[in-house]
């Protein structure tokens, strides 16, 4: 996490390169590590059992007409009706041809049917319940031992970040989390317009909107777009914008073409080590470890299961 | 802050349009507002005394060769030696021809001399002190009545966001804040490489780096760039990148050409109202106000003083 220049010294010191692992923590039982493992080291060394494959049914693969691909993990445990809607929209081919419509700096990129007039396929729940939070019980929630600015507790459950008041749990609005656009309540949105956070976590939206997933890869296709010039970052009519060429569930793709991702298990020892290392960075750059960790800086590690 | 579509109803309900002000808070003494003022309403209605002009000596104006302009407010109260260095680099024309070198998604965009070989002008402090925090006393710090994930207190001072442990105060790493790239401590950086945060606030960097300013306008020129493909988001050699055509202090520009910005005073009644409205949004979209406010979602309002 160096902020300095590109000297050879720094190039060599980049985290998560195997050279660093060898230098920092030689795999010789007799010699203790020269310094604590970094969070990147912990990810690189995590055993197979620390990872859980994301079901192909929960992987939404969006291919844009500019050649970019975004892969999103869906969260049926938190928003089952909205996720069912999204799967149905995807499987009916509904998203094809819809576009990115809004890019508001330090806030969200939103995509779907800008006209709100494209007929929805049959079987869509037009008015899903307000899946803004769910019962904490049964989630396997593990609170982090750190203050959260917005919730009583923040932590993790099943590979997801979560916030809780002790009774309910919800997905927090962090960078890369995906939510369902809606109009004025009691409308909760159908899933036909989705957005992802591209700035500092707008956590005031928590429990006001259905959060349904997290971008796992290809975030740049949504975060590095030109910002919209209309109010709220909407693109002005006529502005060129990425269109969705195809949106599919990984489960519906030929096996050889399917993306596959693993999430680090929230209940693994590696994850506990990772959180501790994130909260107290001890590499040679940091002179004052934070002793704290915002949930939005603690989204569980993801790995591309096709490039192990 | 609607996430829904682009119906006329929503178009009309956008915040900070004068039409909304008229509808939401008619300026007729006898009729109380139909609903509490939104944070955007409060900004729009703030009296002249709620604003303070930023000194032209503290406005860094960077023009890129792609026609984009970024204006940064410098923070001499927090990092006087680094800011003096930056002013000297700017006034000697040193930044011209340097480039953006690193764009790491959800982290930082960094610019300056990628080679670290361009000779620095005379008079630059080669090893500035570690201006990572300063004495709280004398800052006029006002703590927000909300939890902060990283510091004992977070609040504002002189139009700046600040975090504090009761003795010291420092500028937090929030979206759009500007810091000085450095190598391994005790190096603190000269100011010849700067970065801004383009994702969720990496607050673990607080007190580890000199934070020297805040982007006031033109953030898109730094946040919407293609991400670098090398480790840590550095641009690969040969990748096209924006170059700085001119970096100037507003004070050195012809008066007619100078950008000018006002910051809302941290000690104004409008600012207190604004914070309260940000923490508890009560427009018709929000069904559950947060009752909380992260400092990175509470950067003081800025206005373009040339378009009042």
Could you report the average pLDDT of chain A, rounded to the nearest whole number? 90
Return the string of H and E elements of chain A. HHHEEEHEEEEEEEEEEHEEHE
From the N-terminal CA to the C-terminal CA of chain A, the straight-line distance is 23 Å
Low-confidence stretches of chain A: 1-29
Which of globular, elongated, flat, extended, rod-shaped describes the shape of chain A?
globular
- Compute the number of strand runs of chain A: 16
> How many DSSP H or I helices of chain A?
6
Oligomer: homodimer
Question: What is Rg of chain A?
Answer: 20 Å
Count of distinct structural domains of chain A: 2
Strand order of the largest sheet of chain A: 4-5-12-11-13-3-2-14
The proportion of residues in beta strands of chain A is: 15-25%
**CATH class division of the largest domain in chain A:** Mainly Beta
